[in-house]
UniProtKB/TrEMBL annotation:
Keywords: Coiled coil, Membrane, Transmembrane, Transmembrane helix. The chain crosses the membrane at residues 6-26, 38-60, 72-96, 103-125, 131-149, 195-215, 227-249, 256-279, 299-320. InterPro entries: Integral_membrane_TerC, Integral_membrane_TerC_rswitch. This is TerC family protein. PANTHER family: MEMBRANE BOUND PREDICTED REDOX MODULATOR (PTHR30238), THYLAKOID MEMBRANE PROTEIN TERC, CHLOROPLASTIC (PTHR30238:SF0).
Length: 460
């Protein structure tokens, strides 16, 4: 179905307007979104996508409307999976929590532009190359198999880290770069020279990763619809609310341990659908003499049903599975150990005891985990040290309470707890040892003084 140019223009203006609104009112001033803020705006952006889909359903007809929702749900699921890798990249660069919004918004804007270009290329290929559906279908089947193999072997995260590292290494070879952030600046002065900051490098990594993700997502949505307008809008609206969703489900991401399996099933299903469609419209001379084959075609309604059911089952199994519960126990023990240590004696004793008992409950779960889940404990940075410090703090509080005394003194030998009772963290919020934090602070202070001196010399 042909879409009038005026509809294209209005839609692009709407998307650009939403991006501009997001930057001006949420991202320009660096801050850490609260759960309430993230939930509110995630709901608003997904609501806008739903309203747009309903409009397409009413104006364009049931077929276009169903195709939009099938494409939007598929792209949204793939985008959520991408958040895992974004989390790895942001952690690897130790991006300050308050600046992560800006990096994510850049990634979203870049993804919409890059995927828009790839959609245009894909539309031309489908229109002019009769065998394009074979290529798209084969690629999706290959991707689905590779996702399962990587998930089983545990190489998925390593592969993604290597991919984003390629783009960063290429940039570093050409341009000088600093190892330290300078606020949210993209460039800074170091040793009297203008250099890139990690903020720009992480944007390059996110952008490069977006391009690689598009190789999966674009053929997938073309397997659901060949209407370019639907392909573009479903992709764009799946990306628009991704920044808010990142902060909303940050703590839930690790629990979706089987999401990759669900996505691989969806990609394989769409790959088969594309191959069947290609056979139905076959023009390749070495297949059935260049004549179409009488094979069944998968309807858009069936596609939407398979996608929704697969995602629902995958998420449900992830949340109730032993592996998902193991990850939840590790995350909860980490959070509760931090909260317990940072509690002061002005807080209620009963509340402290309640928190401590809950922490012990999750610690017992961790200790009873099978060997195959122990890597979850190792990957949760310094959770063992946190629990050890929490026990030391609790023992000292009990001793003071037994003597009828109250004290905010910390016991000796704490690894990750500062003298004031708070927990040492790096710029990304990861728990680190106090000694490591002091080294990081000393290095940053020296580099900051060096930059200030360089700026003063340039002015004079």
């Amino acid at each position: 179905m042909s879409v009038p140019p005026v509809i294209w223009i209005l839609t692009i203006v709407l998307i650009l307007g939403l991006l501009a609104f997001d930057y001006v009112f949420h991202v320009r001033k660096a801050h850490i979104p609260t759960i309430g803020e993230a939930a509110l705006w995630t709901g608003i952006y997904q609501g806008i996508a739903l309203l747009f889909g309903i409009t397409v359903f009413v104006v364009g007809g049931p077929t276009m409307g169903t195709e939009f929702f099938a494409g939007w749900v598929t792209e949204l699921a793939l985008s959520v999976d991408n958040l895992f890798v974004f989390l790895i990249i942001l952690g690897a660069f130790a991006v300050p929590r308050q600046d992560q919004q800006k990096v994510l918004l850049f990634g979203i804007a870049f993804a919409i532009i890059a995927r828009g270009g790839m959609i245009a290329i894909g539309a031309v290929a489908i229109d002019r190359l009769s065998f394009a559906f074979y290529i798209f279908g084969a690629f999706l089947l290959y991707t689905a198999v590779k996702m399962i193999i990587d998930e089983v072997s545990g190489d998925a995260d390593e592969d993604e880290e290597q991919k984003d590292g390629i783009f960063v290494r290429l940039v570093k070879k050409v341009l000088p770069a600093s190892d330290e952030f300078d606020g949210d600046k993209l460039f800074t002065i170091e040793n009297g020279k203008r250099v890139l900051t990690p903020m720009l490098l992480v944007m390059v990594a996110i952008g490069g990763t977006d391009l690689l993700f598009a190789l999966d997502s674009i053929p997938a949505i073309f397997g659901l619809t060949q209407t370019t307008f639907i392909v573009f809008t479903a992709t764009a609206f799946s990306l628009l609310g991704l920044r808010q969703m990142f902060f909303l489900i940050d703590g839930l991401l690790d629990r979706l341990v089987y999401l990759s399996y669900g996505l691989s099933i969806i990609l394989a299903f769409i790959g088969v659908k594309l191959v069947l469609h290609a056979l139905h419209e076959n023009e390749l001379p070495f297949i059935n003499g260049g004549e179409p084959l009488n094979v069944p075609e998968v309807t858009t309604g069936l596609s939407l049903s398979v996608i929704i059911v697969t995602l629902a089952v995958t998420v449900l199994i992830s949340l109730v599975s032993p592996k998902g519960r193991a990850q939840a126990a590790v995350n909860n023990a980490h959070r509760e150990a931090v909260a317990y240590q940072e509690m002061t004696y002005e807080s209620f004793e009963s509340r402290r005891d309640e928190m401590y008992e809950r922490m012990l409950e999750h610690e017992r779960i961790i200790e009873g985990l099978p060997a195959k889940f122990q890597d979850l404990v190792v990957s949760e940075r310094n959770v063992t040290e946190l629990l050890s410090d929490a026990h030391a703090v609790h023992a000292q509080r009990v001793r003071f309470n037994e003597r009828g005394e109250r004290s905010d003194e910390q016991p000796d030998g704490l690894l990750v707890t500062r003298e004031d009772g708070t927990v040492a963290t790096d710029p990304n919020g990861n728990v680190i040892t106090v000694a490591e934090e002091e080294r990081v602070r000393a290095t940053k202070k020296a580099k900051r003084l060096e930059r200030e001196q360089a700026r003063a010399e340039r002015v004079s």
